[in-house]
Amino acid sequence: MKLRTQVLPSVFVLGAALIVLSYSARAQDKPAAAASTFKPVLKIDVMMNGQKKLFGEIKAAIVDEKMKEGESFAWLLAEIANVNHYQNDSSAYREFADQMSRQCVQLAELMGKGDAKLAKEQFSQIGRTCGACHDQFAKKK
Ligand code: HEC
Questions:
Q1: Which end of the chain is more exposed for a tag (fewer CB within 10 A), N or C?
Q2: In the chain, how many domains are there?
Q3: Does the pLDDT value for residue 121 go beyond 60?
Q4: Which domain CATH number covers 6?
């Protein structure tokens, strides 16, 4: 009798908790599903010309030693590369875009620390990633 009054309610509470947990786990799958259908608002050529402009601003900031200014352009370029991921379904394309985004985050951090020498090297590495993706994916005109 005692067993029934004490154990059964806790089994019931545990069961209810598991149902709530599994429901909330399923609810959390939703944002991921939504992200996979994310569509950039920029057409790719406009996005690329924006990348080129930001890349040029970063170069000028390194040359002029305006590291704080360059840092914010590097963050912006990191975010555009992050969105560029969604311009193409190919995993190779997405890896180039992700790599460029990570490299731009590192560049922003270097510029934030005022490290002009390492920022210059990092800038060149990013240029190589632009080139590698173009070799594989940009149509020759
Ligand atoms: C993940 C792939 C990828 C990366 C990384 C990438 N691009 Fe591109 N880029 C492309 C593709 C694809 C095109 C061709 C777009 C088209 O069809 O018009 C292109 C074209 C361009 C163009 C020509 C745009 C036009 O008017 O047609 C410029 C400029 C450009 N990219 C700049 C850059 C710069 C600068 C970087 C690096 C900072 C970069 N891109 C990195 C994929 C990439």
A1: C
A2: 1
A3: yes
A4: 1.20.120
